[in-house]
Automatic annotation (TrEMBL):
Biased composition (Polar residues): 28-37
Source organism: Dekkera bruxellensis (Brettanomyces custersii)
Protein name according to UniProt: Oxidation resistance protein 1
Low complexity biased stretches: 1-18
Keyword NADP applies: no
Gene Ontology cellular component terms for the protein in this record: mitochondrion; nucleus
InterPro entries, alphabetized: TLDc_dom
Keywords: Mitochondrion
């Protein structure tokens, strides 16, 4: 029997490659759905782009659980709202972790730098290859909350040795008030000039300062202090060994604003949170 010339082969023959076959099945399914041959439970796609876009949407993250606070702990620096905001700025692979663990707290563990280092050490049996992150959370004498995210656990260094990578950043939370109109009994908005019917709502704004690559002075820690970001004799965040005093200045490492209201501040609270 003679062979059929290539030009006379049916145009309806199946694509040869797996990708072509998959695309044809998707196109056939879309054609079937868009012509009305579907049940009420089936999604309606108008084009292949619409069908593909349904695969691109990511499921929502599981709400965070903050573990480690004792019932007796009065000053809890990290709220769920702030934690969820900070979560959006860490590497995606760590965002899926929905449980953060408090590794150190001044109120619960005392003011000891050695204790902080000891509690930040990897625990026995912990997978050292697993990616992790740590949040430093500070409250100063003005009640401001700020800190840093670091990709490695804090530890004393022998000699002036910096560590950390480009995942690290500085951050601060700012309180601000917005004026909101309230409705009267009829559901109508009160006029703007009626101050008695205006409500001032307290809100929190998060500012994040990522690594700039200008220098590599990311993390330095010894038995005298902890610093995150530095240059020109100044530090993005500096905490002394007594956990009484701290300082913050703009530095090239993160291109940050001053985190605290005052350049030098008194520490009222300090926490270290482990992610991953």
């Amino acid at each position: 029997m003679s062979k059929v010339p290539p030009s006379s082969r049916s145009s309806n023959s199946s694509p040869k490659s797996p990708l072509q076959r998959l695309r044809k099945r998707l196109t056939d399914n879309i054609s079937h759905i868009s012509t009305g041959n579907h049940s009420h439970d089936e999604p309606k796609f108008q084009s292949l782009d619409d069908f593909d876009s349904s695969w691109d949407s990511e499921p929502p993250l599981t709400p965070l659980t903050l573990k480690g606070y004792k019932k007796s702990t009065k000053r809890q620096l990290l709220s769920h709202e702030l934690a969820e905001d900070l979560r959006q700025h860490i590497p995606s692979v760590l965002q899926i972790n929905h449980s953060w663990t408090l590794r150190y707290s001044i109120e619960q563990d005392g003011t000891s730098l050695n204790t902080l280092y000891e509690r930040c050490k990897p625990q026995v049996g912990e997978n050292m290859r697993k990616r992790k992150g740590y949040f430093i959370v500070v409250m100063d004498n003005h009640g401001s909350v700020f800190g840093a995210y670091v990709n490695d656990y804090l530890r004393p260094q022998d000699g002036k040795y910096y560590y950390g990578n480009g995942d690290c950043f500085l951050w601060k939370s700012e309180h601000y008030k917005i004026k909101r109109l309230v409705s009267n009994k009829d559901g109508d908005l009160i006029k703007d000039d009626d101050d008695n019917q205006l409500v001032m709502e307290d809100n929190i704004r998060l500012k994040v300062y990522p690594y700039t690559s200008i220098n590599d002075f990311i993390i330095y820690s010894n038995h005298d202090f902890i610093s995150i970001g530095s240059g020109g004799g100044k530090f993005g965040l500096w905490i002394d060994s007594s956990f009484l005093h701290g300082a913050s200045d703009p530095v090239d490492t993160f291109g940050n604003e001053q985190l605290s209201e005052d350049e030098k501040f008194t520490i009222l609270g300090l926490e270290i949170w482990k992610v991953g």
